[in-house]
Prior knowledge:
By secondary structure, the chain is an alpha+beta fold. The chain has a single domain, classed as Peptide deformylase (Peptide Deformylase, Alpha-Beta Complex). Helices cover about 25% and strands about 30% of the residues. It has 3 helices and 9 strands. It has helices at about 25-45, 130-140, 160-165; strands spanning about 50-55, 65-70, 70-85, 85-95, 100-110, 110-115, 120-130, 155-160, 175-180. The strands form 2 sheets. Strands 1-2-3-6-7 form a 5-stranded antiparallel sheet. A hairpin with a 7-residue loop joins strand 4 and strand 5 (about 100-110). It binds zinc ion.
Amino acid sequence: MAVRRIRLLGDPILRKRCERVQDPKSAATRLVADDLRDTLRAAKEKYKMGRALAAPQIGAPVRIVFVQIDKQRWTMINPEITDVGPDDFLVWDDCFCFPNLLVRVTRAYQVTLGYTDLKGKQRTLQLQGPMAELLQHEVDHLDGILALDRASGLDPFALRSEWEKLYDRSARHGPPQPREV
Ligand SMILES: [Zn+2]
C-alpha cells in the first residue's frame, strides 16, 4: 500500500510514451496497480473529483490505467482504443496533473477499448459518453498526451473556480454530434 505523489504539469515523465507491460501477472504490475488504487483514493478525498489514474501520473512510465467509479474498479493493462463511433462530443475535461484547470476538448462519443486484466485475460469494452471520454483521456496519458494538447474551439481554458461560477456541472458534457471531417 502506497500513496504516491501525483506528477504535475511540467514534469517530463508526463510526456513519455509509456512501455507496454510484458507480464500482466507480475509482482511489478500488481505493485503499480495497487499504488494507482491507493493514490486515486487519496486524491479523490483531497480534490473531491476523479475517476481514474494512469501510471505515468504516479511516475511509472508503463501502460497501466486504474479506474474506479463508485464501487466498480478496473485495472487495465495495455489499454487500446480499437474503434471509434461516428459521433463526437465536447467535454470540459480536467486532470490531477493540473487540478485547478478545465479544458474544453472534443472526444469520440463511443469507443471500443481492448485491454488485459490482472489475470492476463484479454477483454473488450464498448464505452460511451463519460466512460468513453475518460478512457480516451487515460490512454492519451500513456502516449504522453495531455488534455491541454487537445484544447478545442475559442477560449478553451477556464480555472475551475471561474468555470464553477459560470456553468452547472451538467455542462461538463455536450450532446453527441456527427464528427466534423
Ligand atoms: Zn489526466
